[in-house]
């Protein structure tokens, strides 16, 4: 007879592939292309793990069906923004099933960019650029006692695999030196990273949370990331990845009051000048033109940045 206890549980369907097309009367069309993960949890599911009792188990197959059902029946604007769709699916589950306490829905998308010809967007043709992936996850939790408009909603949003590189205006000098240090001061270097960024919204009111301009905030965080990377002299010319990370996050916290905190993970993908002195060629420091990219290891710089007093919606 088993005596162990369940410390946490969540079950559902992962990687549900769903595409929704919106067709406007004038021929203009939109597309959303998602991978959805939907996970249910609640105390009453414990017996399905510990006693083999399936009576309350909403089949993962039914959860998958619900994702397609909601993609069709919700108003288009509630499907096309990943954060809104995630919160809709999660709150639908929590409201429909009394024994579901929390629903965690993750939506991942590789955005389709609209094709442009002569600076005009094509009505129904799209392309994909780069490897960048946008994702969001919503946790909707019942309040006690349950009430339709009073739920706790936590939304994390972010993107990863945004690859960037600059060929100058990056340095790393004046760092700690001891007997284990071999790295020389680097007054100028190639800098490359694959940005992972995520940020958080918290609210106890779903309708209010859904009013956020999620697409504009996503675009704004990306713009801040690229702008600081390319242009902010404090971040790069005189300091480090750490300093750039902080300036990027600070800009986003200033621009978007509903964002609670910002996390970055920035690998420092090294490109070292190749020593060609054996061939009588100068290729180090200010002569560097030919580099050897190093696949592994990379630096890995992370931080979560927030306001001194936590901002709420
Ligand atoms: O921006 C950097 N931060 C570091 O902490 C570090 N360490 C290192 O070897 N190179 C770099 N670059």
Automatic annotation (TrEMBL):
Annotated catalytic residues: 13 (charge relay system), 60 (charge relay system), 270 (charge relay system)
Q: Which one Pfam family would you cite for this protein?
A: Uricase
What NCBIfam families does the record tag this protein with? urate_oxi
Keyword NAD attached = no
Where does the chain cross the membrane? none
The molecule here is called: Uricase
Q: Name one GO molecular function term.
A: urate oxidase activity
Might you give the EC number(s) for this enzyme?
A: 1.7.3.3
What metabolic or biological pathway is this protein involved in? Purine metabolism; urate degradation; (S)-allantoin from urate: step 1/3
Top-level taxon of origin: Eukaryota
Residues noted as binding O2 in the record, renumbered to the chain: 60, 268
> Which InterPro entries does its entry note?
Uricase (IPR002042)
What is catalyzed by this enzyme? urate + O2 + H2O = 5-hydroxyisourate + H2O2
Gene3D superfamilies in UniProt: Urate Oxidase (3.10.270.10)
């Amino acid at each position: 007879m088993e005596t162990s206890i369940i410390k946490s549980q969540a079950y559902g369907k992962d990687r549900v592939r769903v595409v929704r097309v919106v067709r406007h009367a004038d021929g203009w069309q939109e597309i959303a292309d998602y991978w959805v993960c939907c996970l249910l949890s609640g105390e009453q599911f414990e017996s399905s793990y510990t006693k083999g009792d399936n009576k309350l188990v909403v089949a993962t197959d039914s959860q998958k069906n619900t994702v397609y059902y909601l993609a069709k029946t919700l108003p288009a604007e509630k499907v096309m923004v990943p954060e809104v769709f995630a919160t809709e699916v999660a709150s639908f589950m929590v409201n429909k099933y009394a024994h579901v306490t929390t629903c965690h829905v993750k939506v991942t998308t590789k955005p389709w960019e609209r094709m442009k010809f002569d600076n005009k967007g094509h009505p129904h043709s799209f392309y994909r650029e780069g490897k960048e992936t946008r994702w969001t996850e919503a946790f909707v939790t019942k309040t006690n006692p349950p009430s339709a408009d009073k739920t706790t909603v936590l939304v994390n949003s972010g993107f990863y695999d945004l690859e960037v590189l600059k060929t100058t205006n990056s340095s790393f000098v004046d760092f700690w030196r001891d007997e284990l240090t071999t790295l020389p001061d680097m007054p100028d270097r190639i800098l490359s990273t694959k940005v992972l960024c995520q940020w958080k919204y918290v609210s106890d009111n779903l309708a209010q949370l859904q009013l956020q301009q999620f697409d504009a905030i996503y675009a704004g965080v990306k713009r801040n990331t690229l702008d600081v990377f390319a242009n902010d002299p404090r971040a790069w010319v005189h300091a480090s990845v750490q300093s750039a990370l902080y300036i990027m996050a600070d800009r986003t916290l200033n621009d978007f009051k509903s964002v609670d905190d910002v996390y970055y993970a920035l690998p420092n993908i090294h490109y070292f000048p190749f020593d060609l002195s054996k061939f009588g060629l100068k290729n180090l420091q200010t002569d560097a033109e030919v580099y050897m990219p190093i696949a592994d290891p990379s630096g890995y710089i992370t931080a979560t940045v927030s306001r001194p007093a936590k901002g709420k919606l």
